[in-house]
Design brief:
It holds the Pfam family A2M_BRD. Residues 364-455 form the Alpha-2-macroglobulin domain. Keywords: Disulfide bond. By secondary structure, this protein is α+β, with helices and mostly antiparallel strands. Among the domains are: 1-75, no CATH class; 82-176 and 246-293, Immunoglobulin-like (Sandwich), CATH 2.60.40; 183-245 and 339-352 and 361-414, S-adenosyl-L-methionine-dependent methyltransferases, CATH 2.20.130; 442-532, Immunoglobulin-like, CATH 2.60.40.10; 1002-1139, Immunoglobulin-like, CATH 2.60.40.690. It is built from 20 helices and 60 strands. Strands 36, 37, 38, 45, 46, 47, 48, 49 and 50 form a nine-stranded mixed sheet that branches.
Length: 1187
């Protein structure tokens, strides 16, 4: 590099007039460091008496490309002209060394004070004696400790005789990592099949040792996916109190072959006065000394929206910290907040893209950790994933004495095996279907291979034969058991696709298909699991029985099983159900909640048996997990191991809820929907329930979230005190929150919204403790207005749901009208058999009792009109009774009714009613306190199954444990014999498939019309199916539905990417379609509401896996999210798919007209390999017989 190409100039200023000073590099060492580091170092002397300085740097390379930069330097402000400065010549300071500092003053002082600060902490403070009668430079040293890494700030200050505080600071980087050398070796020579690898690592005895690897695709991106020294260093620097960018230089590899390297430099204080020097150092100032701050000109205050520059001039306040210099002294860009990483979007984009390149399931196979024993050498054995990819290993150690250390260069490693086999296929199918499992064989060696594929024998499945010429039928294909072998020839470096056809022969259940491949280099065995479901449209019948032995010694219950022994109906062409489709199970739990945590976490699929997307669905999942934890806590059953697991999942669910939170305080249900008052109130109420001091270290909700939401909700309170929904929701998301018109005494109509007002009043009362600032006062005033409004409307209420939620809100707020609300609530109660009491808009019949041989058989329950509203209203009534009178006979009757209307083992009807019921039952369980006295023996008998007699013991140790039993023969009835003391819940679920319209599940009142048509592609053997769904709402009041879900079953082997479904939603194919969810075998389409006019939309599914003899009948359902009793179920006939045989879908290697027809090995194959393979097969066969 020529000398004239790089220079630094001291610009003009008032002191030197037109003179210019040029400073060039001091010696050749600076140039050598430039070629090595890319950083050029300059030295220059500051002219005396200078007030302002401008540094300009120019660079020009050999190709004529040039760059320039400029920095302005101003004199530190001190009205007494007394200054103190600190500097250091120590570069690349390491732990265990000493850093040398020079403190210079222009006045006489006897001592000065200093502080050492790092990562926002004060590490050390002391004072130093100055032994000089004149102004001088004082030198002292500080030892470097590990706590100072990766850098520290030395703050020096002194109070003069005139009480003026002068200060200066310097930032010093510390090389605190790699205090000792470590080695990492990855050895693959011990296993030539490359199924395992061994890593050897050396470190200091007692140190923590960790290794991990990333794929080469992710490593080359250098997007922060791996652990390296620069990434750890920058993470530590995030603790520093920098208000500007860190003084650093970063080197990035253009090809991504090396990790980023970063180097930090010493930095002097950039405070314009002592006050800023102290502030920028991260200290809080408490002093009575004089802190000089230059008074800026007041001429800018006359200009609206302008601020003064430090030296002279003004600038627009909106241009503060905008990256452009509007002041000559750059003061408009001073003291700006630290800017985000300039590579942030790049890194996020790169990291998210890397997820598309591989499955993340086995990505942590190489993460190993342990503590080094004496000697410091450890061996790690790793099971390698069956993927052909390149990996980069990194290793690090963490020692109490030596700190953090990493290896210098990542180690490249290949997981490519000599021979590989992959298997894929559907994981679910229907009884009688034939499946083609797709095998992919890869020869990664430079020589040919023979592969013997073996489908191993099993009583769960059989092999599907294709006759000569590709002749095969869909439902009459020839099947055979035993081992089935097939020989495949693989040329060097080639791959082969083989379809292995199987037919499950079990009625229902899980099967495991075992396929092995043997070559001259080894043997691979893979297992593919498939769940076999029954044929037909599945119908579920649920029965729940409450066993109350608090004052009885013996209780007998008889539960009727809905299914008959035989599906045959004499002289009819239809049948009661499909053969082999029946199944049933019985669950027993103590107390009245049901199974506490059958799975972690509790999701909509686990609790309700269906999928729900959107904010409302995530809030439901958050609520059921939290209230189940509260139930266990209040009944002294909480175990911290399960609590930690649940709270980890709750954090994830909470993040999904906050995805649609706006900083103004509102929530919305979908990405493309509008904010909702009801949803926002419902969300923060559940947040308050989830916020509990015992687990704040695991799950915490910032009170500011609730405060902002309350601020936003209060905007929708009317002058009368009621609350109203936003203008976008004339029909709210939850139909129970719908306002109504009422007639006054003068026949005038007035609109009132009692339920939404009571709902928000409950929320405000419950979250009040978490509301901060003046918003808390506003919320208290709004609560009083809402109470007055509900008190005023109370006398005119007739709707039991309005009365129930209002009575709960007024009781919660201790209203003066709470007794009147309770008496009004009590007058609206309804009763069924045995005096069970509930609240509902319409009578809800209890379970049908069928008498045979003088025994009352309890029949399964069907959905009834306004089921969900009745459960929610009764739950509010139960909480009112508990708050007012505690546990009484009335509350026990209410609990028994709630148990009897369950439609699932862990749920009631829908989402909101399940949460409110769970809250009410938790309160009841807490007050009843029956855990300590529970000692039950429950005996189950199934007369239809000879010898079936199971006895379950429930005591305080097994109070909430789930006891589950399968029903072997699904017909007849169940005898329940319970003895002892306490209470329990027995529930039975019966499932069966139907293929006749007359036996499909029907709603009490028709609320929807639904039509579904399928259009098959005329090419590629019906590989594409376009499904047209048309529907409408039938009721006049309300004029449209609430949140609704269209649930469609797909033929086995067909699928739709969720990204494609979401793209279809965004295209506006339907005006109220908001989101979609895809799981194997089903698609779910979520609508904001369904209108009274017919609307349709189409979506196309594609064949992913070859499946023949597909089930003839599937079901489609349309229902309301918050009211499952409003539903319609129809059957879809798929005869064109039922007639497809295994060759028409290309599901077998035996089909001669398919692209992957597997013939015998060509004659060009090596005879030697053939002989070797036959000998190897005989040896393995003999070995198996011997073992």
């Amino acid at each position: 590099m020529d000398k004239h190409l790089t220079s630094a100039n001291l610009g003009d200023n008032e002191w030197n007039g037109s003179r210019r000073y040029t400073a060039e590099y001091a010696d050749i060492l600076s140039v050598e460091r430039y070629w090595k580091e890319g950083v050029l170092y300059f030295k220059f002397d500051v002219p005396p008496k200078v007030l302002e300085l401008t540094l300009r740097a120019f660079y020009e390379d050999s190709e004529g490309e040039s760059m320039q930069a400029k920095i302005n330097i101003m004199q530190h402000y001190s009205p007494s002209k007394k200054y103190i400065s600190v500097r250091t010549n120590s570069a690349d300071v390491e732990v265990g060394e000493f850093a040398v500092f020079h403190v210079k003053t222009n006045f006489i002082l006897q001592r000065f004070q200093y502080m050492v600060l790092a990562k926002g902490l004060l590490l050390f403070a002391d004072e130093h004696i100055v032994e000089s009668p004149v102004p001088t430079t004082t030198t002292f040293t500080i030892p470097i400790d590990t706590n100072m890494a990766p850098g520290f700030t030395l703050l020096v200050y002194h109070v003069t005789l005139h009480a003026e505080l002068v200060a200066d600071s310097v930032f010093v980087p510390v090389t605190g990592f790699n205090g000792f050398e470590i080695t990492l070796v990855v050895n693959q020579g011990k296993d030539h099949t490359k199924k395992t690898a061994q890593a050897v690592m050396t470190a200091k005895a007692g140190a923590f040792m960790g290794i991990n690897s990333v794929r080469s695709t992710a490593y080359f991106m250098q997007a922060g996916n791996d652990i390296n020294r620069s990434r750890v260093t920058e993470s530590f620097y995030a603790f520093e109190n920098f208000t500007r960018a860190e003084p650093k230089v970063k080197w990035r590899s253009r090809q991504g072959l090396l990790p980023d390297e970063v180097s930090y430099f010493s930095r002097m204080s950039y405070g314009k006065n002592s006050y800023e020097t102290l502030t920028f150092s991260g200290v809080v100032i408490f002093t009575d000394a004089y802190l000089p701050i230059r008074k800026l000109t007041d001429s800018c205050h006359e200009k609206k929206g302008y601020k003064p520059c430090f030296s002279e001039g003004c600038f627009l306040s909106t241009k503060m910290c905008d990256g452009y210099n509007d002041c000559a002294d750059w003061s408009d860009e001073s003291d700006c907040p630290l800017q985000d990483d300039d590579q942030y979007e790049y890194r996020i984009l790169r990291m998210s893209r890397s997820d598309e390149l591989y499955d993340t399931a086995g990505n942590d196979w190489s993460w190993k950790e342990m503590n080094a024993d004496f000697g410091g050498e450890e061996f790690f054995t790793m099971d390698m994933p069956a993927v052909a990819d390149e990996w980069y290993f990194t290793g690090f150690t963490l020692s109490r004495i030596r700190g953090f250390t990493t290896i210098n260069t990542p180690i490249a490693f290949s997981s490519t095996r000599p021979f590989m086999m992959h298997i894929e296929g559907p994981t679910m199918c229907r009884r009688g279907e034939q499946i083609g499992l797709r095998l992919l064989l890869l020869n990664n060696e430079p020589y040919e291979m023979f592969v013997v594929l073996t489908l191993h024998t099993s009583p769960q499945y059989k092999f599907v034969h294709v006759e000569e010429g590709g002749i095969v039928t869909s439902y009459g294909a020839r099947l055979s058991g035993g081992d089935h072998q097939h020989l495949v020839y693989l040329p060097a470096g080639a791959q082969q696709h083989v379809d292995m056809p199987i037919a499950p022969v079990v009625e229902q259940g899980d099967i495991s298909v075992t396929i092995s491949a043997m070559t001259q280099v080894g043997r691979i065995e893979l297992v593919h699991n498939i769940t076999v479901l029954g044929e037909g449209a599945m119908v579920n019948k649920h029965t729940a029985v409450y066993l109350d032995l608090k004052n009885k010694a013996l209780v007998l219950q008889y539960l009727d099983i809905y299914v008959e022994e035989s599906p045959i109906v004499p002289y009819q062409s239809w049948r009661r159900y499909v053969y082999g489709s029946t199944s049933g199970y019985i669950t027993i739990t103590g107390d009245i909640i049901g199974p506490a945590f059958p799975a972690v976490p509790l999701t909509t699929g686990v609790v309700l048996g269906r999928e729900i997307k959107g904010t409302d669905g995530r809030i439901f999942e958050l609520a059921v997990n939290v209230w189940t934890l509260h139930y266990l806590r209040l009944t002294n059953q909480l175990k911290w191991d399960i609590t930690k697991q649940v709270l980890e999942e709750v954090n994830v669910i909470f993040g999904q809820v906050m995805k649609r939170f706006d900083r103004r305080g509102w929530f919305k249900n979908w990405d493309n929907s509008q904010p909702s008052v009801w949803l926002t109130s419902w969300a923060i109420r559940i947040f308050k329930h989830a916020s509990f001091q015992d687990w704040e270290n695991f799950f915490y909700i910032e009170p500011q979230i609730i405060t902002r939401s309350i601020e936003w909700i209060l905007q929708f309170q009317t002058e009368l005190g009621s609350f109203e929904e936003t203008t976008w929701y004339h029909n709210p998301l939850d139909a129970t929150m719908q306002g109504k018109f009422s007639t006054r005494f003068n026949d005038s109509l007035v609109y009132r919204n009692i339920t939404l007002t009571a709902h928000i009043l409950i929320t405000i009362h419950e979250v009040m403790q978490m509301v901060q600032g003046s918003t808390r006062t506003d919320a208290a005033k709004a609560s009083i207005k809402a109470v007055r409004y509900l008190e005023h409307q109370l006398s005119s209420m007739t709707d039991p749901y309005e009365i129930a939620i209002t009575a709960y809100a007024l009781t919660l707020c201790d209203s003066i009208e709470k007794e009147f609300a309770f008496s009004l609530l009590h007058s609206k109660r309804l009763e069924v058999a045995d005096g069970l009491q509930y609240w509902s808009r319409v009578p809800v019949p209890g379970n049908t009792i069928r008498y045979e041989n003088q025994r009352p058989f309890i029949c399964p329950r069907d959905y009834q009109t306004d089921d969900s509203v009745a459960v929610e209203a009764t739950s509010y009534a139960l909480m009112v009774n508990l708050m007012r009178d505690g546990v009484t006979v009335l509350s026990e009757k209410i609990v028994q009714w709630l148990t009897s209307v369950r439609m699932g083992s862990s749920a009631f009807i829908s989402t909101v009613d399940t949460v409110i019921a769970l809250q009410a039952l938790t309160e009841y369980a807490f007050r009843a306190r029956l855990k300590d006295i529970t000692d039950l023996a429950i005996t189950l008998e199934l007369p239809s199954t000879a010898g079936f007699r199971e006895t379950v013991h429930i005591d305080n140790e097994t109070f909430s444990d789930l006891q589950m039993f399968e029903v072997p023969n699904v017909w007849g009835h169940l005898n329940v014999i319970s003895k002892g003391s306490g209470q329990a819940v027995v529930q039975m679920d019966i499932n069966f498939g139907v293929d006749y319209e007359g036996f499909r599940e029907l709603a009490i009142i028709e609320t929807f019309n639904l039509e579904v048509k399928e259009f098959y592609s005329s090419f590629r053997n019906k590989s594409f199916i376009t499904i047209q769904s048309c529907f409408r709402w039938l009721l006049e009041d309300p004029p449209m539905s609430g949140l609704s879900v269209l649930e469609l079953e797909l033929p086995t082997g067909y699928n739709l990417l969720e990204s494609e479904a979401e793209r279809l939603v965004r295209s506006g194919v339907h005006p109220t379609l908001r989101d979609a969810r895809i799981i194997e075998g089903k698609t779910f389409w979520f609508f904001e509401h369904i209108m009274q006019n017919w609307t349709c939309f189409n979506h196309t599914v594609r064949r992913w896996y070859p499946v023949a003899n597909i089930s003839l009948v599937r079901q489609v359902q349309l229902y309301e999210t918050h009211a499952k009793e409003n539903f319609i179920m129809i059957l879809v006939n798929s005869t064109p798919l039922y007639t497809l045989n295994i060759c028409e879908v290309c599901g077998s290697y035996q089909c001669p007209y398919c692209p992957y027809y597997s013939q015998t090995a060509p004659f060009s194959a090596s005879k030697f390999i053939t002989v070797v393979l036959l000998i190897t097969s005989q040896i393995l066969k003999t070995f198996r017989q011997f073992t």
